[in-house]
Amino acid sequence: MTLHALLFDVDGTLADTEAAHRDAFNAAFADVGLGWYWSESLYASLLDVAGGKERILYYWKLVDPDEADGSEVRATIERIHAIKTRHYEARVGGGKLALRPGMLRLIGEAHAAGLPMAIATTTTPANIDALLGAALGQGWRSLFVAVCDASTVANKKPAPDVYLAALAALGVAACDCLAFEDSENGLRAATTAGIATIVTPTAFTLGHQFSDALLVLPHLGDPALPMSQHLPGAEQRWVDLAALRRWHDGTLFEAA
Predict the structure, then answer these.
(1) In the annotation, is 240 catalytic?
(2) Residue 229 — pLDDT band, cuts 50, 70, 90?
(3) Which of 19, 71, 133, 162: CA 20 to 30 A from 171?
């Protein structure tokens, strides 16, 4: 097997965005006059539900199932989510939220090496653009062969659909790719599509089940921020393309 492409989730993976999302949800709830407040622990549990609109509906059914079945609920959720998106953009736009350690460097290395990349996420296009437009520049889309998001497929993670769409756009086999994820739902989506996956959990997903991951790391590391742990098959304590190629071709523990 040869490594032919990298696929990246966005929220929690490229950047630790979940705190910003939670704050934006709470701000939107306040704006529309709802008495809802999602604490960190509650939000962590709600992350099992993929998609912001789906998360709102799920919670609504928990706290007021009769009202959640009303005829105006869908329109109300659309309005809440649009307000939430504006709050999120304000929190991450303009470089307010940096990418996680190693991500900017690795994307640059892959681009310089001519290794195709794709985005495979279930977040909305506006959220992606707000984050990556600041972190990677306004021409960020040119770095990726495909950007598959919530508008691309009907079924969100843990369904494999967004990864299957990314593979089709890349024109490569699943066995020739590596994916990067931060959550159990994301890992299930990628592995169901047949893609070996490296997981970098956040504080919100540390308790998830990652037994099917190729490797679980705190982050990708950087020369200025190396990991405390030794990386199998790597001479340094940060992830680079050479290490990814060794892990992908099955020599994960040869130099451990």
Answers:
(1) no
(2) confident
(3) 133
